[in-house]
């Protein structure tokens, strides 16, 4: 006999399924049954499923029936396979349905008229401070200068002029233009890196909470995701190192400034510590340099992981779309030399290259100093809103929420105090009905339950008057 | 004992490895040894490797050592894992090195001065017939009309105006604008679809030969790729159906007009047959509508798979960059309703959205009738080159190569006759030294060996005089 008696008992207890329903394929019956067992917690999250052979013998079906059932479970996100070890149950995220509700609600509203809403969900600057005429002049200058070439010629790393400007203006020449790859934004950067260096079942660490768009890519890539809580100066280092000790970590994804959603910036001390650990435990840091241009608190000094790195451990991602204008779709990536070729190939296989005319326009815009002026304008304007929003939160929500001052960026991350029953899903729904849009915290966690007391409010699309109005409404909804 | 005696013998013969080299981790020794066995054909392509447990016992190491060795083999492309079945050897493609040589050589030349070369490798129209001033006017009109909005506002499916124009101008309103997703080109379309509907180890069929950029995506996605030879009116249907019968195929990737590289267009009869089979065997057709605007032979009537489909079986991909100007980076995708949401999410996770200003410009360009005029100009100009290139091939290479007349598109696919010893790698190298660039056929095959007698020459970047000059040089190199 191949099956040990305890395994038989285990299977008997947990896996009994009636296979005499002729119209439905057996593998589907088995799959459905196991799904129910997982949903109802009879089989727990990460519990090992019986081996294919033993379950097949027990149910008196072919091995391939079990293989198909397990494959279906995997496809539906109910199981993961570990090489040489077997198949494991995976609990479905109970809040997945809310994510869908949330994005559907926003889509619907955005497609209608936004005028009736106070929109605290903005992720990027609005265009209100952007002088479109300057950009128009730049675009025309490019077309006069380069002609059709501006729309044809494609360099494998991106337009050389722009790479030059990035090297000179943003890195003081300390990064070689040949080490810069032009991409279409941070989201693409995360996708390209994942394709080039992450394989199925590789392990990565992310901050808790973190950017949901990154989580999606890593989940899609079927990596094993570990989360480390963010504290007021960056991640919890003890928990971080504990995970590094126990697991073979390939990559740590982090937003180094005004992290999305917490607004926290990692301290230089922690950055240096993390870089050391990267060398010891042989992992790489995927740095998403998010909104580091918008610093309102002068005590914050800007140092990216990339600028502190001496060992080629950082995959640096920068989006121009976030701070500039989302519709331009340009960003750049500086990979370690080791990954340069594979990430470049990853770009080619993903979308060949980024719009060459927009690269030329952005280059000229930077070289004319327009970029610098624009960022200064944004800084002034958003600093006012930042201060105002903070005041309003303290005034109207002071006894209802807790938060850490970010000192920059475009948003606040608030926690509804423990003694208040309301969660942020309920808050989202009620606020929406009263014309206020917020982002509930659950979107930023691997297990969304952890985010249910949190919500994010951004001031990028809301003027001072509406900030006050919106927060007042929120305070009416959140009842102690 | 767990190991059967024949398995012991098998392992003894094939897997003997000296594990007493203390400085190197055991799993690496084992991995290196198996790699050598695969390279030297002791273990053949697709041969099953011993089970983890039996090999571990035999070598007296931990299971995890073998797991790590097999993982490394997988990462390096020397093994694939099949769920519930084990790990299988995978032979490395012997011509992979040439692909690298080829792309490096082209990169180097493109970065230098192209003036000294006759470039037969062009994949897209050059800008010489494009009236940049018209485009400039359109761009300015968009900026005057929409202001900063042109650079900010992002719709989840892409700019509504452009989707409207596509629906009206290219589909006579028969495709709903809500079923169109704007993307940044065909390559992105292939990538998005693969992410949304293909899982590791899923099976797909491609044409033999096929577009290398598609092959890369499918390989990267770790799908099982089947190839069906292309004949003069499309794929070989017997071979196609044989594969469908034996395997669970998820998708068939095809270029329906002037296929890259063969230049062949699939007949309507075959298209209808393939659509029927899709319904019977439950697979989907990924249609890359490649250059169908450039038809020189009036007997060719344009019917895409998408326009013949009644069962929502086609994932239609169209690139504007290919026919228009590569630097614009715009295309669109029409998925079956069933996949609409997952492909849209795939787009968001890949790069959020496509440059909104370029979408607006293209929309206006189409609506003003400029697109139609431009395509007519291209048709006239390229038809002349097409006829001229065909004449030159017959005149100078008539006794050295065979080919099928494509009747449209931008290139010819030539086969060096069997009695001639030269292969296209040698031809590429010698031609390059004499200032002529061609594309060797090996790039278009899963096993590149099959393409070694073929090469592709495109007339998109070469005027009539240089076409004649270049082909004359090729005829001097190819010696009977």
What features would you describe in this structure?
Two copies of one chain form a homodimer. In chain A, the strands form four sheets. Chain A has an eight-stranded mixed β-sheet with strand order 4-11-10-9-8-5-6-7, sandwiched between helices. In chain A, strands 12-13-16-15 form a four-stranded antiparallel β-sheet, covered by helices on one side. With 480 residues, the first copy, chain A, is an alpha/beta fold. In chain A, helix 8 runs parallel beside helix 16 (356-367) and helix 17 packs parallel to helix 19 (464-477). The first copy, chain A, has helices at 5-14, 26-39, 52-59, 63-75, 96-111, 132-146, 149-152, 160-171, 186-197, 212-220, 237-246, 268-281, 305-308, 320-323, 337-351, 356-367, 370-397, 424-433, 464-477; strands spanning 79-82, 86-89, 118-119, 181-183, 203-208, 224-231, 234-235, 249-254, 284-289, 314-319, 331-334, 401-402, 411-416, 436-437, 439-440, 454-458. In chain A, helix 10 links the parallel strand 5 and strand 6. Chain A contains 19 helices and 16 strands. Residues 1-5 of chain A have low confidence and may be disordered. At the A-B interface, helix 4, helix 6, helix 7, helix 9 and helix 10 of A face helix 4, helix 6, helix 7, helix 9 and helix 10 of B.
